[in-house]
Amino acid sequence: MQDISRRKFLGLMGSAAVLAGLGVAGCGGSGSSSDSGSADAGAGDSGSSSLSGTIVCSGATSFQALVEDAANKFMDANPDVSISVTGGGSGQGLSDVKDGKAQIGRSDVFAEAKLEAADVEKLVDNQVAVVGMGPIVNSNVDVDDLSTEQLKGIFTGEITDWSEVGGTAGPIQVINRKPGSGTRATFEAAVLQGATVPDSWKPVAEEDSSGTVVEKVQQTEGSISYLAFSYYDDSKFKALSVDGVAPTAENVESGDFKIWAYEHCYTPADADEVTKAFIDYMLSDEVQGELVEKDGFIPVSGMKVQKDADGNISNK
Amino acid sequence: MAKTKEEYKDKKMMPKGQLESVGLGLTGACVAVVAIVVVALIFMVAQQGLTTFFADGIGFGSFITGQNWIPSDGRFGALPLIVGSFSVTLLSTLFTLPIALGSAIFVVEIQPGFGRKIFQPLVELLVGIPSVVYGLIGLTVVNAAMRSIFGAAAGTGAGILSGAIVLAVMILPTVTTLSIDALAAVPNAYREGSYALGCTRWQTVWHVVLKSAMPSLMTAVIMGMTRAFGETLAVQMVIGGVEKSMPAGLLDPAATLTTALTSGLSNATTGSVEYHALWSLGLILLAMSLFFILIIHLIGSKGAAKHD
User: Fold this and answer.
1) Do A178 and B263 touch (CB under 8 A)?
2) Phi/psi of residue B200, each to 5°?
3) What is the pLDDT of residue A301?
4) Does A202 touch chain B (CB under 8 A)?
5) What is the ipTM score, two decimals?
6) Which of A158, B123, B126, B236 could covalently link to B259 via disulfide, CB atoms 3.0 to 4.6 Å apart?
């Protein structure tokens, strides 16, 4: 009897091992399909005048929808072109384009922040949109404006009660994004201004996605977090103004609202014809004048200020 | 391709010698594939995971005992993650064990009719529910319950306790099913002998059935723990995901080895120290599950010897 149940356990172990094996095979599979994609694209640009080929575009999820919309329009106009837009995060996008697994790597942050200088030189930075971000709070919080100093205090754990910033007394529940998230990097660069977060302090949650942030802020009394403008929804939470400046596209363009970042599409320096054509299309009026705003982003062309990889802002 | 004596004795097999070797080849190939997958997997995880210690210059000791996991600052202390993993695993086992054991006793010893026909299939149904469903339920029900019970102290409701509760529900069917098997495997003669000595039903269950089923019950518990230890998605949705420092209490948001690995991977670039450190977490996970499996084998062989 004991033997039978032992065999059963071994069987269970075996199926677990097979499942693990399948998982590994799955990962390998996705990698190799991107590889074959680049091979196709290489074959596609051999001399013919009409565009054909395959583009793999992986990376940041924050503006994946924008690139997907543009890709669908581009594929409608060029039936021989196939563009597959996948997620994975900024780190993945930069890794993929660096390693040649993707023709375009999307990132919320400058490649300088994640890659070695030697690798950055081999890539071309195409800034396809600007995204504004701002602090948001639970709808019950009776504060409408915070100064950058106050935000810095809240996100380093120095200010822990709403009464310290002019609201009704109650603990401030800080909900962060994961370290490495582009949204967090942008927010912290603008708000913390070099201040370090003490080891002893920690937020009540660190979320993997903006979608969960929306849900958690909506549900948690006294919570504060930050989101890109494209996620703003007055019925679920309250967006704060910073230093008296409202979080609007106009204020970002004029440079009055300081929390914003570029959405980057990195391509290799020796990108093939079809990839270049798609990037040109992303930067054309058709996308910049219409899709970008429709999806909640800000066209780069409208910006009166610019930012470099070190975060320095200057007038254009 | 040496044939055994039995095969030569069986006259019918002789003309099918060719077929025999084809069968051997096919099944052998299956075994080879499984073996290659296992060996390649261990080799790859070890190779990438050990890079952290040998090429990137992070000490193994400081990796295991460091109290801050902040990859952006180059600080790789995996202790908060290890503590997170073990605390949700042990807590969930603690929640699950009495319930699983109680229902197993009910099914095997007290009401086999209802238990076998209705309860057991019901529990086995639970095994197949995907973890994302448990995670969603945890996110909406468990986290909300934590907020309403503990108020502001619970933060968003996400924390070690929420994670342990969701995991407890997840591993309950596994532990229950295996416990039922374990109790049912105790020979009836043991029970009859016990009754013949004048023992009550409770005495029989406690002193005879549970005692002799102990090795298999231990295996059931460890199988549950293995699942809890390796579970990612459901835990990730309810634990809060704070990796930077040590959790200070059960309501504190935390992270486990698996959740840190999955959420870190989307932001790490290949070849970076952070990327290697994530593989090192994978290596720790692999080592732990090998350790669990080893225990199961040890208990299994010990239990088999006892019954013989």
Assistant:
1) yes
2) -75, 170
3) 87
4) yes
5) 0.77
6) B236
